[in-house]
Amino acid sequence: MKLELNQIQDLNKQKAAEQAEHFGFLKLALDKKGIDAEAIVQKLADFQVAIPSWALGSGGTRFGRFSTGGQPVNLEQKIEDIGLLHALTQTAGAVSLHIPWDIPTDPAATKQLADSHGIVFDAVNSNTFQDQEGQVETYKYGSLADRQTAVREQAVAHNTEVIRYGKLLGSKSLTVWLADGASFPGQNNFRKSLQNTQRSLQEIYAELPADWRMFIEYKPYEPSFYSTVIQDWGTSLMLAEGCGEKAFCLVDLGHHLPNTNIEQIVATLMMKGKLGGFHFNDSKYGDDDLTVGSIKPYQLFLIFNELVYGMNHNEANNPPLAWMIDASHNIKDPLEDLIQSLEAIQLAYAQALLVDTPALEAAQADNDVVLGQELLQDAYRTDVRPLIREARLRRNGALNPITTYRSLQVRDHLIKERGLKTVATGL
């Protein structure tokens, strides 16, 4: 299914006058504060987030998985679904592939299909946390960190293969996340596991094209619960620095212990010039992979405040960041869930762009804690939705993507095309 521009525009006309009124009112209010609303709208229009190919179907847990119906059963259908998201939101202009879940059988044709939807290929992701059919060595006890040389060589070879697919599709980065760790004391030697990981990552790094980057993701626990080899941002940073200037840290919002100050981690990594990208999601207890902004929207705003500050004060020459979603849609329509996540990301970004940084720095210099909080919360409490809608409108997106999605009965059409019991690859 592919949405036509006139379908979206016809529905936009019903709310066009209301949007013009709301945008005009907010623009006037921001002008009085010396904030350029037009500049913010342009930044929002340019901001693109990669959709993970593994998140276009219903997610699940070890207790069950419930299909939404009409789910994509191959990579081509997944790209078509991202095309739907991009047509509606105009901020989903990239896809992040997970290999081997989504191996392109004809990379040239896959790239051409993506081009037709205005989609580029962001980071490609390797998978050494599952055994695949026909695989010689098992990852049950580890992969890049494993004590067995043959296992490590197999995991390195897989990452090299992922790079090869990425090159064919036009990707410029590789994301490495390891499930390697221990479930019980005495299972692993901590030092040797970390040394093996560093050597394995260096071998993968040596295969990177000159214009590529490698993102090293961290996670404190799960699937192992006693220890994880790359358990925090410091270990990720150490490994990245041990590889070279093209290696960076990747921050997944769900990969932290409860109440971790993620915004401080962001600030530190950008100061070091080693923040490579983001996996957006939300959580209540752990790596819940919930809809972005559904649980901790203020934290998301504070994170974006540090991101915006870092991008505007980039003394360490931190490269442009890779923005990606990593979520699991266990009970929602996956496309609606992703639309909500994209909206939440845009909201937090827009709010952060409203922060009066000079005034905030002056308050900090005067130790005026109250004013500092007021300045942040004034930006956070501003209803920036008219700015986001205006950015979408100017790119021919939908003023209200969820309403448009439902009005056009997209899910019903997908079920008619693909069937009710289809199951997408991925978690």
From TrEMBL:
Q: Which InterPro entries match?
A: L-rhamnose_isomerase, Xyl_isomerase-like_sf
Q: Which GO terms describe its molecular function?
A: isomerase activity; metal ion binding
Q: Does the keyword Manganese apply?
A: yes
| Protein name, as recorded | Sugar isomerase
Q: Could you tell me which Gene3D superfamilies the record lists for this protein?
A: Divalent-metal-dependent TIM barrel enzymes (3.20.20.150)
* Taxonomic source organism: Salmonirosea aquatica
Could you list this entry's UniProt keywords, alphabetically sorted.
Answer: Isomerase, Manganese, Metal-binding
Spans through the membrane: none
Q: Does the keyword Mitochondrion apply?
A: no
